[in-house]
Design goal:
Blueprint: H1 4-12, E1 20-27, E2 35-39, H2 40-56, E3 60-64, H3 71-80, E4 84-87, H4 90-98, E5 104-106, H5 113-125, E6 129-133, H6 136-149, E7 153-158, H7 172-182, E8 187-194, H8 205-228, E9 235-238, H9 247-250, E10 255-256, H10 266-269, E11 286-297, E12 300-303, E13 318-319, E14 325-329, E15 335-339, E16 351-355, H11 359-363, E17 368-373, E18 376-382
Parallel strand pairs: 2-17, 3-4, 3-10, 4-5, 5-6, 6-7, 7-8, 8-9, 9-10
Antiparallel strand pairs: 1-18, 2-11, 11-12, 11-16, 12-15, 13-16, 14-15, 17-18
Helix pairs in contact: 5-6
């Protein structure tokens, strides 16, 4: 292997992407644990609910694959009606391109020559590949590479919603960047991206909507400037699961970049809905199956899932269908479960489904999904883009 690019290319083709069909379906109880499992009935219902909402309100859905990192799930979302997918990184986009997904937007900007050249090589073979830009220097870098390759790259200008993470300042700076892109022969302006990630997990519908509407004022001001300059903005991409039902009324985003709606987790469930304390428009479809492996004390039982099976920045996981069990982190490999008069007896060897605190980083800890229907697993879905954070 003579180059770093060859090394990265070899990684692309070493991971399976198609479902692995089992010759003989197996019950959930036979799985080795910890195992990342998907309730297919709930997943299908979530995909249908979101697409119905999108169609009803004349919007577009561009599902974010940084959440599930799975080509099979991306294909299902597109088959339901999504116009395409988002990817956070070039390596994720490579996985989705290899799997045949045609319309892909990379939602993070690039600033290094090596990464830009990698993106351009991918774009040359996949004309539906697009990317965001937020600075004139990175736009020039992208343009020069595109011209040298003889292609034109579709770009979205990313606006900073006030998070200070990525994006250009709203208003005149964004307009100036768009005008500069207009003079570049290798880039084609396709729209704006404005993702207010700092609003997605605000608890309480009214509080979330109020802050989100305030943040979007900068976006509306930017659109007005573009209109006055005679620049058409056909697509404004952004939003997410936490604001999906606010977008039609606010009328700024017309392409929704939701991801977590497909699986849901504790963090999203607890933000609250329009008329409820819990956000339950979408049902939890993703769980980690664990096994009770030890009982060192009468009121405690240990399961085989710890920090290497669940990711969380706020709270521990919770049990799906047994009340009176309280999970405590027990280290990398273990969870220590407090038995507070549980709704059913839990003994050694029992396998228990647990709701994830935060689905995105939890998925990135596992290699495969085990989707099931009526308690039966018939195929295994590779999490092909796991670890693709480069």
């Amino acid at each position: 292997m003579s180059s770093l690019s060859e090394f990265y290319d070899s990684l692309r083709h070493s991971k399976p992407s198609a479902p692995i069909l089992l010759d003989k379906p197996v019950p959930l109880e036979s799985l080795d644990t910890p195992a990342l499992i998907i309730d297919l009935d709930q997943l299908d219902a979530n995909l249908d609910r979101m697409q119905k909402h999108i169609d009803k309100n004349g919007m577009r859905l561009r599902s974010h694959t940084k959440m599930h990192k799975c080509p099979e799930l991306a294909r299902r979302q597109v088959d339901k009606g999504a116009v395409g997918v988002c990817c956070a990184k070039v390596s994720e986009a490579e996985v989705m391109c290899d799997a045949g997904i045609e319309d892909i937007l990379v939602t993070s900007p690039l600033a290094s020559r090596e990464k830009v050249e990698r993106f351009i090589r991918l774009g040359a073979a996949n004309p539906g590949l697009k990317i965001v830009v937020d600075h004139k220097d990175s736009a020039k870098l992208l343009n020069n590479a595109a011209v040298a390759k003889g292609i034109i790259v579709g770009v979205f200008i990313e606006i900073d919603p006030g998070m200070g993470r990525t994006g250009i300042e709203a208003g005149a700076p964004a307009l100036e960047l768009c005008q500069q892109i207009g003079d570049m022969h290798g880039l084609r302006f396709e729209g704006l991206q404005m993702y207010a990630g700092n609003c997605m997990h605000i608890e309480g519908f009214e509080a979330r909507q109020q802050k989100y509407a305030h943040i979007l004022k900068k976006g509306f001001e930017t659109l007005s400037l573009f209109k006055d300059a005679g620049i058409d903005v056909p697509i404004v991409s952004g939003g997410g699961t936490g604001t999906f039902d606010m977008e039609p009324e606010l009328n700024f985003i017309n392409e929704l970049q939701a991801g977590s709606y497909a699986f849901m987790d504790i963090e999203y469930r607890d933000i609250g809905g329009l008329a409820s304390e819990k956000f339950e428009f979408f049902s939890v479809a993703l769980f980690v199956l664990v096994t009770a492996i030890s009982q060192p004390q009468a009121q405690l039982i240990t399961v085989d899932g710890g920090f290497k099976s669940f990711a969380s920045d706020k709270m521990p996981p919770q049990f799906r269908d047994v009340e009176g069990l309280v999970y405590h982190w027990g280290g990398d490999e273990h969870g220590i479960v407090q038995l507070n008069n549980p709704s059913r007896e839990v003994v050694l060897g029992n396998k228990l489904a647990m709701i994830t605190p935060h689905c995105d980083p939890t998925v990135n800890l596992h290699d495969y999904y085990f989707p099931y229907r009526d308690g039966i697993v018939s195929e295994i879905w590779p999490i092909t883009a796991r670890g693709c954070s480069f």
